[in-house]
Amino acid sequence: MAVFSLAIFSISKSDSVELPPALASNAQPVAFREQLRRRVPSSVYVASAELGAIGLVGTLFNTQGLSQVPGLTGAVLLAAVNIFTPLTSALFGANAKEREVGASTWLSCVVALAASTFALLPEGAGFELPAIGVGESEVLAAAFFFSAAKVRLSSHLKLHDADTCTVGRLVGQAGLAAAGLGLLDETNAVHELLPSERGGLGMSLVQVVDQGLDWTANLSGEQIFWIVASAMLSGACALFCQSKGQSVVPAPRAQVFFSTSPLFGALWALLLLREPITAHELQGGAVLLLGIR
Length: 293
Hints:
By secondary structure, this protein is mostly helical.
């Protein structure tokens, strides 16, 4: 679905019109052909499904790729999002203004790519381009879809407010993930409830609920805290802040700010894990901060 939605909005030949400033709650129904011309659906449900699908596909590629390549290689490859974001903006932007990426923005993104890659390298390690295998290709695909999600979010924010986009994206991605688990994963409640003649375990609803309660009861207080904190801080809160920021900052420019992730990662590692910040992280972070102007 993510590939389909991106293709739909990229093949439109006519230039899209400026989107109205109306919020989703006040938006009037628009013919589907007109929505294609605008490249932004007026239905918040369609918008949520698209953002959720793109985010989910990116997460799946990232998870699958990182399971096959070293963590450092994956992190360096994910830095390619600094180049993919202005590229996908030029391809999938909802109007001419979004598709126009200035030379200064391109330069900032290239500098961000070099600085973030340098910051990720350990001390004394030289840089060597990784051989591109299946795992590496999947991480690069994840970087592409992550950048596409930023661009499409900027487009949807022209019509829907930040709160709506955040909630819709979370619900859409969670719903699609749950549907996928129900169809593909054999360790979920849907599989357990299905009768044995249909490939399930034939368990009763009470047994499935009891299993879930037993799993929850075995969690420690610290585990529950970190599960909730990671879901709220790196999930809902991060997406909300992203939506708020991208409502006024175009996606390519926003990517320059996103490229500071290695710097904040080093800071959190220092605060929570007592890991020292390396010279590479300091130098790369300084270049990243200089690039944000």
